[in-house]
Amino acid sequence: MFLHHIRLAFRTLFRDKIYAGINVAGLALGIAASVLLLLWVQDELSFDRFHQNGSNIYLVNANFINSGNKMTWETTPGPIGTRGKQEIPAIHDVVRLKRDWNTTIFTHGTREFTDERGSYVDEHFFDVFDFPLIHGNPRKPFPTTQSMVLTETMAKKLFGDEEPLGKTVRLDDKDEFTVSGIVADFPTNSTIRASALYPFARLVERYEANDYWKSLETDWGNYHYHTYLLLDPRATATTVGEQLTGIHAKAQDGANVHYTLQPLTDLHLYARDGQETGMQTVKIFSLTALAILLIACINYVNLATARSAKRAKEVGVRKTTGADRRRLVSQFLTESAVLSVLAVALAFFIMQLTIPFYNMLSGKELSVRLDNPQVTLLTGGVLVVTWLVSGFYPAWVLSAFKPIDVIRGKLAISGGNTTFRKALVVTQFALSAIIIIGTLVVGNQLHYIRTKSLGFDKENVFTFGLGGDMFKNIEGVRDALKQDPSVTDVSFANQNLMSIGSSTGDTDWEGKNPDEGFIIHPMGVDETFFKTLNLELVQGRGFTGSPADSAHVILNETTVKNAGITDPVGKTFTLFQTKATIIGVVKDFHHSSVRKKIEPTAFFHTKNWVWLVYVKTTDPARAVATAEKLWKKYNSKYPFHYNFMDAEFDKMYRSEARMEKLFYAFSIIAICISCLGLFGLVTFTASQRIKEISIRKVLGASVQQIVTLLSRDFIRLIIIAFVLAAPISWYAMDRWLANFAYHTEVSWHVFVVTGIVVVALAFLTMSVQVIRAALSNPANSLRNNE
User: Fold this and answer.
1) Closest alpha carbon to 717 in 678, 753, 689, 690
2) Taking the model in full, what pTM does it have?
3) Which of 757, 696, 733 lies closest to 429, judged by CA?
4) What proportion of the chain, given as a percentage, has pLDDT over 70?
5) What are the φ and ψ backbone dihedral angles of 464, each rounded to 5 degrees?
6) Could you report the per-residue pLDDT of 407-434, keeping only the tens digit for each?
7) Nearest to 231 by CA among 241, 218, 216, 217
8) Which pLDDT score, from 0 to 100, does residue 83 have?
């Protein structure tokens, strides 16, 4: 019986190739789009979930309240984890991690490579995290402070097929490390990634060897380290966070920090303050995948019911020859299954063709191979859902036809069924409108970000790091660069202005309340920095380069506001235990994503403690060539790396830009499938009303009047869909925009554009079939007694 149904299904599909083709194409597009989106979602949700104790691993975050505004950092002082383990029984283990992503030369014999992904980690790193150590002792991965663990890829580069353990690697022609372990390459779905691991104890040694005024283990003011805790499964993260807060308060007078613990499995999708930055995108993409799949299923239902008049006599004949309703339902569900399988096959072909482009848009490395269990499970699940959702209703409707009415040509589809089909079209276009509105809002926010004043000039400014003997001849570097006529300004600093990494709570000022400290970003600059970046001083003056500048400081407006300092110029501000005089106030500027509010920043003058060059130019290509030539003069072994500030700005919003492009692609797919569904309903309605159309034409109705008659109801459906979509999309996108401290609004222009696009596309879709019906010969339909 089953094989018989399959043969009938193929016979039916080949008999009506156009409708079968439209059905397969619509379902295939919907399935391909939804599976690709769900693969992206699955990859995002998989981050850091491969650790055996992953549910008990937490990152310690430091929280501060600045004038009522909460600020959260994922880095902490060095001692908080080790002191916490000593005093809190619920903490089973601690791992501190300090990223060192400066360019490093790895040398072994004649082989030499550069890499930028090194990290210092505590010796319990492999006890807490499940990164497979292929060679070495996971209990003691660093026998000495001069030991190192390399990834497989890095070891292969340096040693080829040689045994790497015990080999010596020289870093930057300075330090020598002995390879004590080889770890498998870090997975792409890990928030912790590195090419080389060094012992954290080495950092402690360097701290003390450089004669800092504090040791790393007693410095509670510098928040430079990621601290991971492995907790007892019975422990409460909130309680441990409060206990850590108490430990810090005892160790540092006036500390205004509150510690919270964030699950390792949340780090990729949630901001450190708990906001659903990535998770919200996951939810949006999940809903988009379901919406597109639903649109495709609705499209199939409408096209199937549009063909019901043609299938009615077949149903009538089968019923009169003894077929019961169960057998008919089984037959039509088999048809749906065959069509769904064909659609999945075509969808898989579409995914194979588009996956390189999709990976480029999404920034992923996804694959759609059949041997990939994730692809198989997702595609199989989508196939079953599509088959059941799209096949059941048409099968039920078609099997319900009464033989006597069918044979006599008196088939009448009930008004309830017609209403249901119209409701499906409304749902289709409402979902499509929501996706389009979301796409436009994301685009508007990106436009707002790109055109918003950052408070400094990022155009035609590039940076590169100092290296080698450049540190000994900074003014010589400046003079050499300025000999190029295309270079207008050259400045030096110890931070990247667009991602200031340093932070400290070790500050003081006149009138400070001991209980109201806050974290500040210190940045060392030279006397030309403000001019080069066009940073505006709203009070006071800038640095002059004189020796007196060593006792001067310039604050941004947020620092002055948070500290409650009135008339700041001339007052004292203590930074790093050094009392300085405030000589100026710089206008607030964005030194991170506009998702975050502008944070306190303090500039101090330095001529020696700098390692980043800022070059402003009128001819970028020429200036970069000049800088590269100068770099090679001092650093022949190191590759020359530079970054344009406007390109760094674009990277900062890469995820939003990808989201916009993906939304554009999937909104086009959604509206195309919806138009196919509308085409099906128009076809159905035209066939049902062909007798009415013929009579009206005989009585003198014009083609325009008939087109208006048939289109009016559908335009009403589209308007209803838009009215339903507007508030839903406004609410969803308003919540998305709330993730940005600075954002545009959900403008009425978005709804106008969406309404015009949806109505125009719907009208174009309808016009083909409606005009065709209006131009048909009335004699043919009246002769057939339709």
Assistant:
1) 678
2) 0.80
3) 757
4) 85
5) -150, 155
6) 555 554 443 456 777 788 888 889 989 9
7) 241
8) 94
CA atoms within 13 A on the CB side of 590: 21
pLDDT value of residue 314: 63
For residue 391, what are its two tokens? Answer: 């096949």
CA-CA distance, 532 to 614, in Å (whole number)? 8
Q: What is the DSSP string of 757-772?
A: HHHHHHHHHHHHHHHH
Largest CA distance in the chain: 106
Q: φ, ψ for residue 725 (rounded to 5)?
A: -75, -35
Quote the pLDDT of residue 22: 78
Residues with Cβ within 8 Å of 377's Cβ and at least 6 positions away in sequence, in order, are none
Kindly give the interhelix angle for 654-688 and 645-652, rounded to the nearest 10 degrees.
Answer: 50
Q: Per-residue pLDDT tens for 499-544?
A: 887 777 778 888 787 766 677 889 999 999 999 999 999 999 999 9
Residue with tokens 């080949």: 14
* Phi, psi (degrees; rounded to nearest 5) at 500: -65, 115
Measured distance CA(327)–CA(486) in Å, rounded: 82
Q: Nearest to residue 524, comparing CAs of 493, 561, 499, 501? A: 493
pLDDT of residue 420: 75
As a residue count, the chain comes to: 786
pLDDT tens sequence across 725-744: 999 999 989 888 888 888 88
Cα 186 from Cα 194, distance rounded (Å): 7
What's the DSSP call for residue 168? E
Is 760 exposed, middle or buried (CB count within 10 Å of its CB: 0-12, 13-18, 19+)? Answer: exposed
- Other C-beta atoms closer than 10 Å to the C-beta of 618 total 11
Gap between the Cα atoms of 658 and 766, Å rounded:
33
118-121 and 196-199 strand pairing: parallel
In angstroms, the CA 765 to CA 300 distance is 16
Task: Report residue 11's pLDDT band, with 50, 70 and 90 as the boundaries.
Answer: low
Distance CA 99, CA 117 (A): 7
Q: Whole-number mean pLDDT of the chain?
A: 84
Side-chain-side CA neighbours of residue 237 (13 Å): 16
CA–CA separation, 534 and 524 (whole Å)? 17
CA 480 to chain centre: 42
Read off the pLDDT band of 591 (50, 70, 90): confident
Predicted confidence (pLDDT) at residue 15 exceeds the cutoff of 80: no
d(CA 382, CA 36) in angstroms, rounded, equals 11
Instruction: Please state, in angstroms and as integers, the Cα–Cα distance from residue 669 to each residue in 344, 428, 666, following that order.
Output: 16, 12, 5
DSSP 239-284: HHHHHHHHHHHHHSTT---EEEEEEGGGTTTS-TTS--HHHHHHHH
